[in-house]
Every structure is written in C-alpha cells, then in structure tokens.
Design goal:
With about 280 residues, the protein is an alpha/beta fold. It has 9 helices and 11 strands. It has one domain: P-loop containing nucleotide triphosphate hydrolases (Rossmann fold, 3-Layer(aba) Sandwich), CATH 3.40.50.300. Helices cover about 35% and strands about 20% of the residues. It binds adenosine-5'-triphosphate (ATP). This is Iron-sulfur cluster carrier protein.
C-alpha cells in the first residue's frame, strides 16, 4: 500500500497498518458540522445492530443531542422503517437535506430514494461504496452531536469503505449470545484494529427474556457470554440487552421513538459509559 491510496488496499495483508487512513478520509459536505461519528457493527446478520442503532439515536435524542443516522446497510436497510420515515431527502442546488423522524432524528438511507420500500438493491461492491460516500459528502447533515452509522453485517466491502473513507471516532460491536456470534465478534474486532479504529465496546443483544409473570430472567440461548467475549476480544463490555417484544412491534410499525421499555435505560447507560471514555 502506498500512502494516500488505500482505496484498493487489502487491510489484512497490508503491512503498513493503514497509516494512509488519515489522509484519505473524505471531508463531509461543507454545510455539515458533525462532532462525533460512531459506527455500529456486527460480525453477522440479524443480531439486532439496526435496533441498537435506533435505540442509541432515541436515547441520545431524549438526552437533548442532535442526532443523525447514516444507513450504510445499503442492501438491507431497515432504519427508515423503524422510525416511520418515508419522505425522500429534499434536493437543493447544494446537496440533499435528510428527512427527520417525528422526534427530529435526521435519516439518510437508500430506501428513501427507491420508488418502493421493498424494491431490492442488487448492486456490486463499488456502487454500494459510492452510495455510502455520497451519503457523507452530498448530504447536508447540518450541526450534529452524533452521526450514527448503521453498518452492514460482516467485514465485507461496505464496512471497509466506511472505515477507510469516513472519520469514524469509535465503533460499537453488537453480538448475540450464541457461540458463533462470539467468533465473528473477534473478526470484527480484528478488522477494526487493522483499520486503526477505536472500539467503544461490545453490546450483547437478545441476551435473555424476562418472564412477564414472575420477572425471572430466562437465558434462551444459554448463559450470557458477553463478559467472556469482551474480555477475550480485549474490549469493554457496554452491557447486555434483553429481548422485548414491545421493541419488535414498535420497530415494525415505525414507532421506535415511542419505546420506553427496559432496553432504553440500558442504552442510556452505554451512552454514559461512552462519554466517560472520551
Ligand atoms: N432486544 C430485542 N428484543 C426484541 N426484538 C429484537 C431485539 N433486537 C432486535 N430485535 C428484532 O430482531 C429483528 C432483527 O433486528 P435488526 O434488524 O436490528 O438486526 P440487524 O442485526 O440489524 O439485522 P441485519 O443483519 O439484517 O442488518 C428485528 O425484527 C428487530 O425488531
């Protein structure tokens, strides 16, 4: 790899540990003033990465922060649906103004540009990477305290584009209690290390269910491995989240901002832990 051109670099074989990463990050739109960029990543699909992104946005917004979500999960976008946002961004001569959720979270997702929400996006890697970069360079995010990036699962082209081209301040890794998910956490952690991106911590989602009658915690997928997985990967554990069918239902109906259940308090705690790390 030569300094300044890490676009085509393979970080797992590059011996320079991405020292070119700094110079190649691209500037945001000139009318965007973003204080912190946080990526939400998972080693594998379906562990609740988008739900954790949405809850983080809700928690931050309720704490009075200006928040945006860049949905980089181009082929499987779910953020607009969770927030009930269908309006496309407003195009101006200068760029795109992202639509806002009812509570004021600014959202940009490819789904907002498609004629129908269920139209598939059958794109190859370079096109996907190009779209993600445009959501950074061509979207007028305005003044944001936090831009959350919902990354596609795994360690493929799209997360690589984000980590190489956008100035990500920290990553949150979402996992579920199954052993397989732990193995892929280690992959995600190694990728972040290769890209020199700080990991803010691990969140174990769907860790347990709470019995509605007696309040007992039931470990459906077996005992939580969150502490063990975080220690093994050498990253802080932000916490474990229970299963809550109210969250599923509100996400399905575009009303995640109305959620007031137990996961939100936990996510508020992550936010405080993240702040203490700064
Ligand atoms: N803690 C939870 N309690 C109840 N339902 C949950 C929880 N976390 C996620 N879900 C539900 O599980 C499903 C998958 O979640 P989500 O879309 O957030 O996963 P993901 O990891 O982003 O998936 P993908 O890999 O497709 O991007 C959704 O229907 C969501 O509402």
């Amino acid at each position: 790899m030569t300094t300044g051109t890490c676009e085509t670099c393979n970080p797992s074989t590059c011996d320079k540990t991405c020292e070119a990463k700094g110079p190649t990050t691209i500037p945001p739109h000139e009318l965007s003033n973003i204080k912190r960029v946080i990526g939400i990543m998972s080693g594998k699909g379906g562990v609740g990465k988008s739900s954790v992104t949405a809850l983080l946005a809700v928690a931050l917004r309720r704490s009075g922060f200006e928040v945006g979500i860049l949905d980089a999960d181009i082929t499987g976008p779910s953020i607009p649906r969770m927030f009930g946002v269908r309006r496309p961004p407003e195009g101006t001569g200068q760029g795109m103004i992202p639509p806002q959720s009812p509570k004021g979270v600014r959202i940009m997702s490819l789904n907002l540009l498609l004629p129908h929400e269920d139209d598939p996006v059958i794109w190859r890697g370079p096109l996907i990477g190009g779209a993600i970069k445009q959501f950074w360079t061509d979207v007028i995010w305005g003044d944001l305290d936090f831009l959350l990036i919902d990354l596609p699962p795994g360690t493929s082209d799209a997360p690589l584009t984000v980590l190489q081209s956008l100035p990500v301040d920290g990553l949150i890794i979402v996992s579920s209690p199954q052993e397989l998910a732990q193995m892929v956490v280690r992959k995600a952690v190694k990728m972040a290390a290769l890209m020199n991106v700080k990991i803010l911590g691990l969140v174990e989602n769907m860790s347990y269910a709470v019995c509605p009658d007696c309040g007992k915690e039931i470990y459906i997928f077996g005992p939580s491995r969150a502490e063990e997985a975080a220690a093994e990967a050498g990253i802080p554990l932000l916490g474990s989240l229970p299963l809550d069918s109210e969250l599923t239902s509100l996400c399905d109906h575009g009303r995640v901002e109305e959620y007031r259940g137990p996961l939100l308090e936990r996510v508020m705690e992550f936010v405080k832990k993240m702040d203490r790390q700064e």
